[in-house]
Amino acid sequence: AQKITQTQPGMFVQEKEAVTLDCTYDTSDPSYGLFWYKQPSSGEMIFLIYQGSYDQQNATEGRYSLNFQKARKSANLVISASQLGDSAMYFCAMRVSPGYSSASKIIFGSGTRLSIRP
Amino acid sequence: GAGVSQTPSNKVTEKGKYVELRCDPISGHTALYWYRQSLGQGPEFLIYFQGTGAADDSGLPNDRFFAVRPEGSVSTLKIQRTERGDSAVYLCASSLHGGMGMGTEAFFGQGTRLTVV
Questions:
Q1: Are A20 and A6 in contact (CB under 8 A)?
Q2: Which of B100, B108, B112, B114 to mutate to probe the A interface, most A CBs <10 Å?
Q3: Residues A5-38: pLDDT tens digits?
């Protein structure tokens, strides 16, 4: 079964520290894509970073990096130098396709609520 | 448009009534997704369109839920005989296409908060 697991319901981090949000995934497809989204209290879903299953290097976008360990099926998000504005829900997601089609849907994990302490 | 637009932003309906939720995706995006999100949980996949056709409707919870995208742009999620358990935020998203690779991230609308009383 295709599934995203986020085992940290909530985390507290001191401002300016780095934080790692865990994500493991399960799929038998050789081709897949992994995403991280941020959802502040306002409710909007904000795309942060993408990693393809065939990408050799870990993705980075500013203060965000994705620690992709394919053999372990993990795709942890690392936020460096956390800021108060990073307080939000964070969702790991995976693009998966059924075997009979190249079209693919995106499924989400249950999320981690990150709170940054001043 | 500049972003994904969902209307209405809020909808209160009585149990048993019929509701329609509208999604206007980003212009040129061929893939469109509907999700349902309950408080404190992740978005739950409902249905995915590639163009006009539903490529995957495996997430629709039962036959009271139906969605269309007749011209490959605007989509409508239709819920018949609403139940209190249908109360949630319904999110719509679109992406350039439904394949793999960079640039295939989904862009989300602000959602429709449905309350069934």
A1: no
A2: B100
A3: 999 999 999 999 999 999 999 998 888 999 999 9
